[in-house]
Amino acid sequence: MYRLREWNRGDADRLLEAFRWDELAWQEPEVPRTRDDALEWIARCGRLAGEGDVHGFAVVDGTDRVLGHAQVSVTSRRHGLGWLSYWTHPAEQGRGVASGGARLVTEFAFDRLDLYRVETGHRVNNPGSCLVAQRAGFRPEGIERAKLRYGTTRYDTGTHARLVTDPAEGAVVGVCGG
């Protein structure tokens, strides 16, 4: 249904549309605001992948239209650990884009990067992101108090992980396992 591909220059306008969504923009450290910014963001994805430890992909459907983004970052080669992040274009939400992309990029992390464990987290006031993680096979592991800060506000974070030995199906689905 969905697949991953590298971002390309033709995706710049779609990327700018996504970052006009406040929910996404206020969480990102570098928000593309112009076409040149978007092209630099796309080029940076390619450079990081070339360096080997950060792999960000466009999540697309059969029409090759960008629906979202899924990324895995190697956090420890020694321990075989990675970090998953994802977002969905606001016009595409509710279609399983984020969970599909998260599942695909996690399989990439296990198969191509030889990771053993991939972790992710979300603000606890974002139950949709919690469900995405669980639908991608991530098991809830707990709450990290006041971990994230956006602006002047701190947020508790629900943490999840998937091991290479975990099936994608079978995770308890409910807000942080509840």
Overview of the molecule:
The chain is α+β, with helices and mostly antiparallel strands and 178 residues long. It has one domain (3-167): Gcn5-related N-acetyltransferase (GNAT) (Aminopeptidase, 3-Layer(aba) Sandwich), CATH 3.40.630.30. The protein has helices at 12-19, 22-25, 35-51, 97-111, 127-135; strands at residues 3-5, 54-60, 66-76, 81-88, 117-123, 139-150, 153-163. Strands 1-2-3-4-5-7-6 form a seven-stranded mixed sheet, sandwiched between helices. A hairpin with a 2-residue loop joins strand 6 (139-150) and strand 7 (153-163). The longest helix has 17 residues, at 35-51. The two termini are 29 Å apart. The mean pLDDT is 92. InterPro entries: Acyl_CoA_acyltransferase (IPR016181), GNAT_dom (IPR000182), Ribosomal_N-acetyltransferase (IPR051908). Pfam families: Acetyltransf_3 (PF13302). One of its GO terms (molecular function) is protein-N-terminal-alanine acetyltransferase activity. This is GNAT family N-acetyltransferase.
